[in-house]
Design goal:
It is a single chain. The protein is an alpha+beta fold. The protein is 27% helix and 37% strand. The chain has eight helices and eight strands; from the N terminus they run E-E-E-H-H-H-E-E-E-H-E-E-H-H-H-H. The strands form two sheets. Strands 3, 4, 5, 7 and 8 form a five-stranded antiparallel sheet that branches. The protein has a three-stranded antiparallel sheet with strand order 1-2-6. It is elongated.
């Protein structure tokens, strides 16, 4: 059976993609200079947060994922980042291929929250490979790529930020339930506010974020009638 090994040699943000996308450069090696007709791979990418250090501000931003820093010995578990397929063309011995990974800026996704909390440095990634190889000379052999094939890579946080900035320049993104969105629309319309930024600022501005308003206008709008004035 052909022995395969994998290494990640770099990553870049795809500036021409329709949505946030990272492109990892993979080097695939078939031992013994073996002939490979095609390689159908599955790649799972995990963030391994225990493999880096964190500043105080980063630790504060990660509290909702891992709890207080004093508990990190038991809570700092791997975070799923992506699971993508890859079809590598025929090669002999070794080939470099691009692994295209669509990403999200949805803050309900643990990986996004983790990456957004980092101020700099690198993201420790573990890439796990499996799949099917079509090999042989003078014919085809079908071989499995074992589940224990892996590669370690440290992705610069700057690359992630560059990708997000390309698609959400100077902005954040949140996903809201339909009922909450309807309440916000009603509040914006009721107060003739020109933008979503102005709408949220109006909701937060009542006595300041540290001292919440005596009456929550958004909660009032979500009641059954939808007519209660804030």
């Amino acid at each position: 059976m052909t022995e395969f090994s994998f290494a990640c040699t770099g990553v870049r943000a795809d500036r021409y993609a329709a949505g946030p996308t990272l492109v990892f450069r993979l080097r695939v090696t078939a031992a013994g200079n073996a002939r490979v007709h095609a390689l159908a791979l599955r790649c799972q990418i995990r963030i391994e947060p225990a493999r880096r250090a964190y500043e105080s501000a980063e630790a504060d931003g990660l509290a909702d994922l891992f709890g207080e820093r004093s508990r990190w010995g038991s809570t700092l578990k791997p975070v799923q980042f992506a699971q993508v397929p890859l079809m590598a063309p025929g090669f002999t011995g070794e080939i470099d291929v691009d692994l295209v990974v669509p990403c999200t800026y949805d803050m309900d996704v643990a990986a996004t929250r983790y990456l957004t909390a980092l101020g700099g440095g690198e993201v420790p990634l573990l890439m796990l490979f499996s799949g099917t190889a079509f090999t042989g000379t003078g014919g085809f052999q079908v071989e499995p790529v074992p589940w224990d094939r892996e590669a370690i890579f440290r992705m610069p946080v700057a690359t992630w930020r560059e990708m997000i900035e390309q698609h959400f320049p100077g902005c954040g993104w949140i996903r809201l339930p339909r009922a909450t969105m309807d309440a916000l629309l009603a509040y914006r319309s009721q107060h003739a506010l020109p933008s979503w930024e102005a709408t949220l600022e109006a909701l937060l501005d009542d006595n300041g974020a540290a001292d919440p308003p005596r009456r929550d206008p958004l909660r009032a709008l979500t009641r059954t009638t939808g007519r209660t004035d804030p």
